[in-house]
Known about the structure:
six-stranded parallel β-sheet
Amino acid sequence: MADKKRAVIIIENSSIPYDIRVWYEALSLRDNGWDVTVICPCLTSAHLEAYKSTNPRDLEGITLYQFELKIAEEGIIGYFLEYWSAFFNIMKISWRVWKNEKFDTIQFCNPPDIFFPLGIFYRLLGVGVIFDLHDLFPEFVASRYKGFKGRLLGFVAQVTEFLSFRSSHVVITTNESYQSVAVQRGRLQKDRVKVVRNGPRIEQFSPVEPDLKLKQGFRYMACYAGVMGHLDGVLELQESIRYILQELNRSDIFFVLLGNGAVYQEVIEQNQKLGIQANVYMPGMIRDKNLLVKYLSTSDVCLSPEPYTPLNAISTFIKIGEYMAVGKPVVAYDLVESRYTAQEAGVYVTPGNYKEYARAILSLMDDPEKREVMGKFGRERITNTLRWGIQEKKLLQAYQFALEG
């Protein structure tokens, strides 16, 4: 029997199993005969000692190395310290893994785009190098910094992105928009850039019986489930909620915002400032997959409030696929990839118009037949086109391409 192929996956800004895309990738490789090692930060202090790089652990057949890292939320110095710490730890751990057991492929997940020196190094050792393009790093930098500082950092981000593309044997992207960016900005042939979309595992995201207790006595429930960062639109969503409650006088709707992130505390403060906290529930990130599915299945409408930015416009949001998988209609701003993902399962609103977004929510709340039709379409689209089982085949093809160099 031939030796198993070995893969190492690097992720800097999240950890498994909470980063769903990377977790699915690792499981798919494991299920197809690979030995898989993931190197990622430990983002919580709980049980940190058990996760130190000197103590790898087994997580459902995946070898997991974690290191301590404080994620920066703002400030150039904070990001520099985070990225330097991550680079040093990942360099050290990956070399230890290489010395102990070698590996056939190494996959770098962005952001940030800082690991191309390791890609070049391991490529020289005969390893297949894969760059998993999750986000467009130059656009991310442009959204955070303006003026001369923004232009300077933007130029650096463009250089590191180009080197990340060029140091890889194959680039995998979440959609065709990102594929076009990789081809053009990386000056790559199209066959070196493979699209592996973010699709839910339908065996995990299937509709369940609604639990009316989760509505806490309200007639309707709207649900958001995802990261709460600066570009995710949760702060802007508060204005739509206020408009519904206070100007359209609809107090029968319960808004459940599931998730955590850089603006979580700010959203709580905004709720209190606007006087809408009685209708808004924010329990944080739901780690229990069954409970998350129960919340989504109980909701009447699901929310994807990402505002227009050059980055958001061509990004694929995992939450939309999860909403569709449990058969729920989606209200989103009219962004290219959001519309491509949801199609007839979504209602699309002019970007930046929070009042129109609010009215779209109410329109769906008051039309149960339309909600049912949209939900059915979404579930079928996930099952037939976007589910992870279909994307898995494309991932394996990309890995084979990297093995062939």
